Amino acid sequence: MNKKSVDVLIVGAGASGAAVAYALADLGLNILCLEQGEWIDRSNLPSTKKDYELHRYNKFSCDPNVRKLPQDYPINSENSPITPVNFNAVGGSTINYLGHWPRFHPSDFRVKSLDGVADDWPIDYETLSPYYDLNSRIMGVSGLPGNPSYPPYDIPLPPIPLGKLGNTLAKGFNKLDWHWWPSDTSILSRAYQGRNPCVNAGTCDLGCASGAKASVDLTYWPQLLQKGVQLQTNCRVREITIQPNGKAGGVIYFDPDGQLQEQKAELVVMACNGVGTPRIMLNSKSKEFPDGIANRSGQLGKNLMFHPLSGVVGLFEEPMEGFKGPMACSIISQEFYETDPSRDFVRGYGLHGGRFTTPMTFALGGYGLDNLMPWGAEHRRQFDEIYPYCAGLTIVTEDLPLESNTVTLDSELTDGDGIPAPKINYQVDENTQRMFAHGAARAEEVLLAAGAKRIVSSGGDVWWRAGWHLMGTARMGTDSENSVVNGWGQCHDVKNLFIVDGSIFVTSAAVNPTPTIQALALYVGDSIKKNQNLLF
Amino acid sequence: MPFLVRGEFKIEHSLVFSLVKCFKFGCVMKSAPSKKNLWNSEQLFILNEILAQLIPSGAAGKIPSAAEFGVADFISQKVENHPELKQLFAQGLNYLEDLLRQSGKTAAELSDEEWIAFVSLLEQSQQSFFEALLRSTYEGYYSESTIRPFFGLSSEPTQPEGYLVTSDDPMELDRMLEPVRQRGVCYREC
Ligand SMILES: Cc1cc2nc3c(=O)[nH]c(=O)nc-3n(C[C@H](O)[C@H](O)[C@H](O)COP(=O)(O)OP(=O)(O)OC[C@H]3O[C@@H](n4cnc5c(N)ncnc54)[C@H](O)[C@@H]3O)c2cc1C
Ligand code: SF4
Fold first, then answer.
1. Mind listing the pLDDT tens digit for each residue in A303-321?
2. Residue A204 — φ and ψ, nearest 5°?
3. Cα separation of A485 and A479, whole Å?
4. Which of A93, A237, A485 to mutate to test the pocket of ligand 1 (most atoms within 8 A of CB)?
5. Which domains does chain A have, with CATH numbers?
6. A159 to chain B, minimum CA–CA distance in Å?
7. How much is the average pLDDT of A480-503?
8. What CA–CA distance (Å, rounded) separates B32 from B165?
9. In angstroms, rounded to a whole number, what is the distance separating the alpha carbons of residues A480 and A296?
């Protein structure tokens, strides 16, 4: 069935889909967003239930292969040491993300010129800076201005409390005379725009019932609906159509009743994240594009980047209260962030001092891991003598783009509508492994300087269920031979098709990506506004 | 014995547990499987002994063991909801029953040390079952809200109350950050 054509069709109602809609919403355009998930029920989130931790291993897992909800699609990650995680709902993965909110550094956009690796971005920090600021105000960001590892910028709200754990780690950094700073967070330290402040519940991945954590169903979407943007939930896009004139015609999708529908549009914007977007584009095959729409470069689905993570944990004399406060946020150190030629790796990493974890997750190996802890007397000892006294640091490494790290379509596995599932082929780069070794040794030094009696867990394997950050699979570039979109998110090969999620990252930096994803989506929206003559 | 209320995994405190106790303390009870439980009373007795070894009680008995929390009921429910686990658990329990038979003792006669040896054997020779059992035990045990206060957490859901964390005194924070500021800008201009 054909429906009335819309001006702008956005696929995905997560972080980036909401931001691009915001930038376009004041033009009087007819904007429709199709989202495969639905609105979440805030009165019924796991964090309001007594058995809240159990939901982390069930229907509120960050892993779609565990959740298996009808709106989820499976992901084949047999050939990867890291599995991508997400959430499929209005709000996308901001429903279960952890709200850590660092920006990229200016140098992150210039890696080729500065360090001779990967490629420079076609845009720079300065261009994105006003969009970072605008997004901070819409999301409601807390933090302390004046961090010497960035050019100056404003932050709407004061920082969240460091807590006992953060204060302890900070002392360690100071002893070593290393950089640290209170984390920027998209979590409210004060009431803001009708939302309540954080109550330090410590279960941000289980949905923030108090509404302190900025998920876009709370921040952007109410404004967007008021501005007339239409949102249709439970609608899963199967493919983008192509017209004889080489322009995208719209999409074919499954409606809430599972019926196939066609939606025509003047402009199609993909916002399904770094795995979901290449999946649907690879599935959009035609005579013009036998390898997936807008894929003449062959780069679609390549250069997948994750930020491989690992952690080091120290044992302290006093209880560290690691279950209190936002899970991933307290302090961040960027002492080892910028390239230093004296090290055996290029680029760098961050040491993130989040909080510790809740008992069930400790027993099951930690957040992002699947290593059951010992049973019997040793189990008792670890709970009584270790668990309460732990504080750790996470090593967040910059992942460099490798063509061999890919998202492709699985030949057998499909979602509930029969759309092929994404298949991940990924290996941790050698450069990253050297960063891990360096980072683990530095993290141990900090923990010991902070007063740890000993190290109870030292680096080790990369975390498995921690493919939180999905980047690089439809990268930006000025050269249409080796990139999918140009400097403002427009596909080189299909002028009215745009991508606004982490797929378009050229490199990954060594920080959580969402502030940059959303700043980019706002920038792309603004650029569409300014360059309407170049759209068709 | 706290009754089990587990949100969406809510289970009635079934007959099973009293059966198990009865079995353990020697009343004559022919296998009388509860309608809520997959296993007969002997299997349940064995399972509970194993659970008591997986997470033993602590703090001189103040922290209950996994057997004392009715984790067996939780596991039974889980297995029922995950058909792929049924076969695995059936095999695992058979294996344990065989071990018991070979020992020439009744379940009630085995000492703690002997049960520990059983668990070690299980871990080595029935890896998939053992992993599924251990995982389910941890899930069942730590979703019991009354266990959390032993480790400093509230027994209440984390929302809406949350936890009190005192805000940092801005002057003190400034003082702590002074050395970081002193070192000056640490990003590359470009
Ligand atoms: C557990 C976890 C912790 C995280 N912590 C942090 C953090 O602390 N800081 C940070 O910066 N980032 C964090 N992230 C990452 C962050 O959530 C993502 O970067 C961000 O949400 C990406 O935005 P997006 O718009 O690209 O995709 P998403 O937010 O994932 O949204 C994509 C949307 O598209 C929809 N969609 C996909 N395919 C289709 C289709 N075929 N048809 C219709 N709809 C479709 C999905 O349902 C989804 O709603 C975390 C993520 C997770 C899962
Ligand atoms: S710690 Fe704060 S942000 Fe996280 S869930 Fe609790 S209230 Fe929300």
1. 999 999 999 999 999 999 9
2. -60, -30
3. 9
4. A93
5. 1-140+214-305+403-427+466-536 (3.50.50.60), 158-205+308-397+436-465 (3.30.410)
6. 9
7. 98
8. 51
9. 8
